[in-house]
């Protein structure tokens, strides 16, 4: 466990970093792949690395240092199991660490829960705090917070669990009255496009809502936005400086092969989508996106890192899609790739994130 010493690491010893990965969400395998990338790239001269896997059931295991077993490929989704290493009872049993790097995506990791545990234990950790993580995870509250800050979001309808269970016809009518097809139906709290369906007419709506409900009882139906998918990486500022925005990148989906940027296009099929960083955009548009990305980060009270995803319409209008407080972080993921294009390598980025976590005080801030 970390101590409350204001100087977290003495120069004479390495900084001890616990990497938390796997976890209880549908993005378990992606998180493990991220851990593989970080384990390989982190500066071992400076950091002592403790890999801690979390199984799908929530069991913590000391995972050992073999990064290659967590690599992701089209025919191998890596997984943390109880056989992966020695089981521990949780944070209290992993021993002293200076900082925790939660490489977890989705609910029970990216949503403020693990951050709350670390806050309670007074342990320093990388990335967003409890509130920012929770808001960033929940696409409903995310939109409310963005809109409350005057930031542009598209039209949407929230489908609460009780409403769907008791008044399906009303939900279908509300969607048809308020939104134009195609719409995107998605779980409020998921990621990696899990449970997301594009629906072209009302006949497909109920099935798509049921598919989203498999991941989360709360569902969002969003108006489809025709535009380019652009992303921007935000990194907290050092020493009280303002957050930094990377050059924007673009997701280019091959629409003959995939409907949209779904799970397969994201991770499994290299031919369905391509990522470009920097995106080919007029300077003025790129600047507006970077400015909006920082404002979105600040709107949720972001710390450390986030990736802000937007749509750019054919008229050059920029609309927020979402903020990801623990974006994909493998060496080929968009977040590191955009920093690479901005002049910060993957290893430097890992170092920067850990240093940001070490300089941040614990407790209310
Ligand atoms: N409103 C929308 N209009 C157009 N495409 C969308 C919309 N919402 C989602 N998509 C498509 O679905 C993908 C996944 O949706 P997203 O909201 O980003 O969920 P996730 O959190 O799972 O990444 C997006 O990358 C995009 O390709
Ligand atoms: Mg997304």
List the helices and strands and how they pair.
Blueprint: E1 15-22, H1 28-41, E2 47-54, E3 60-62, E4 86-88, E5 99-102, H2 113-120, H3 130-137, H4 139-148, E6 156-159, H5 161-166, H6 168-178, E7 183-187, E8 197-199, H7 205-213, E9 219-223, E10 228-235, E11 244-245, E12 249-253, H8 263-268, E13 273-276, H9 283-299, E14 305-312, E15 318-324, H10 334-342, H11 346-359
Parallel strand pairs: 1-2, 1-5
Antiparallel strand pairs: 2-3, 3-4, 6-9, 7-8, 7-9, 10-11, 10-12, 10-14, 12-13, 14-15
This protein binds adenosine-5'-diphosphate and magnesium ion (MG).
Adenosine-5'-diphosphate binds next to strand 7 and strand 15.
Structural class designation:
alpha+beta
Q: pLDDT average, as an integer? A: 93
Low-pLDDT stretches are: none
Backbone CA Rg:
20 Å
Q: What is the number of domains?
A: 3
| Count of helical regions | 11
Q: Which series of helices and strands comes N to C?
A: EHEEEEHHHEHHEEHEEEEHEHEEHH
Query: How much of the sequence is in beta strands?
Result: 15-25%
The helical percent reads 25-40%
- Specify the biggest β-sheet: 6 strands, antiparallel
CATH topology of the largest domain: D-amino Acid Aminotransferase, Chain A, domain 1
CATH superfamily of the largest domain: ATP-grasp fold, B domain
Q: What is the approximate shape? A: globular
CATH architecture of the largest domain: 2-Layer Sandwich
Q: What is the CA-CA span between the terminal residues?
A: 21 Å
Attached small molecules = adenosine-5'-diphosphate, magnesium ion
Number of strands: 15
Task: Kindly provide the name of the CATH class of the largest domain.
Answer: Alpha Beta
């Amino acid at each position: 466990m970390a101590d409350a010493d204001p100087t977290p690491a003495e120069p004479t010893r390495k900084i001890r970093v616990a990497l938390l990965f796997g976890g209880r969400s549908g993005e378990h395998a992606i998180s493990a792949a991220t851990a593989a990338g970080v384990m390989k790239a982190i500066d071992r001269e400076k950091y002592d690395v403790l890999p801690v896997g979390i199984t799908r059931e929530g069991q913590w295991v000391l995972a050992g240092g073999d990064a290659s077993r967590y690599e992701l490929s089209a025919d191998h989704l890596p997984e943390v199991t109880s056989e992966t290493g020695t089981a521990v009872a949780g944070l209290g049993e992993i021993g002293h660490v200076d900082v925790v790097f939660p490489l977890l995506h989705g609910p029970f990791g990216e949503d403020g829960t693990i951050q709350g545990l670390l806050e309670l234990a007074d342990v320093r950790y990388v990335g967003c705090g409890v509130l920012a993580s929770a808001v960033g995870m929940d696409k409903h509250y995310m939109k409310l917070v963005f809109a409350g800050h005057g930031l542009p979001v598209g039209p949407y309808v929230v489908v609460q669990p009780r409403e769907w269970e008791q008044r399906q016809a009303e939900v279908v009518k509300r969607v048809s009255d308020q939104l134009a097809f195609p719409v995107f139906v998605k779980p409020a709290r998921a990621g990696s496009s899990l449970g997301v369906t594009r629906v072209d007419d009302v006949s497909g709506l109920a099935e798509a809502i049921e598919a989203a409900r498999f991941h989360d009882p709360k569902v969002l139906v969003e108006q489809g936005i025709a535009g380019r998918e652009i992303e921007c990486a935000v990194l907290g500022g050092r020493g009280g400086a303002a957050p930094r925005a990377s050059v924007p990148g673009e997701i280019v989906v091959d629409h003959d092969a995939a409907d949209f940027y779904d799970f397969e296009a994201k991770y499994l099929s290299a031919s369905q989508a391509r990522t470009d960083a920097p995106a080919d955009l007029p300077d003025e548009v790129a600047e507006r996106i970077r400015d909006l990305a920082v404002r979105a980060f600040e709107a949720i009270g972001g710390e450390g890192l986030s990736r802000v995803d937007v749509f750019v319409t054919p008229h050059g209008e920029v609309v927020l899609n979402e903020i990801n407080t623990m974006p994909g972080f493998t060496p080929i993921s968009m977040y590191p790739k955009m920093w690479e294009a901005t002049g910060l390598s993957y290893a430097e980025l890992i170092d920067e994130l850990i240093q940001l976590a070490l300089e941040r005080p614990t407790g209310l801030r």
